[in-house]
Amino acid sequence: MAWLVLILSGLCETVWAIALDRSTGFTRAVPTAVFGVALLLSMAGLGYALRTIPVGTGYAVWVGIGVVGTALVGMIALNEPANLPRIICLLLVLTGVAGLKYFH
Fold first, then answer.
1. Helical segments of the chain, H only
2. What does the pLDDT look like over 56-87, one tens digit per residue?
């Protein structure tokens, strides 16, 4: 259960990061509200998961999911560059996250 919550929390990290960008410095109400809710859910889920998952592993997986998710949203929906070096780097992050889960 803790791993599922950790994965969902990592996805919430992606949501709050994109909402933070879209809030334009907290000047837009809806993205700011989405940011706040997603941030709270993300942190609460991380805190729950860290009850049973070691902090180093849990935090690295949480950040890795957030990094990859945010970068993918940026490339797919926000017209950020999607070149081969960036994709290779994201695959390396995913490999590291999978390795941390596997070797836990």
1. 2-22, 29-49, 55-77, 84-102
2. 999 999 999 999 999 999 999 999 999 999 99
pLDDT score of 100 more than 90: no
Q: What is the CA radius of gyration of the chain?
A: 14
Q: Is the dihedral of CA 71, 73, 77, 83 positive or negative?
A: positive
Structure tokens at 81: 């560059």
pTM: 0.88
> Residue 75 contacts by C-beta under 8 Å, 6 or more apart in sequence?
81, 82, 86
How many other CB atoms sit within 10 Å of the CB of residue 47? 12
The answer to whether residues 42 and 63 touch, using CB atoms and an 8 Å cutoff, is no
CA-to-CA distance for 56 and 46, rounded, in angstroms? 12
pLDDT at 102: 86
> What are the structural domain ranges in the chain?
2-102
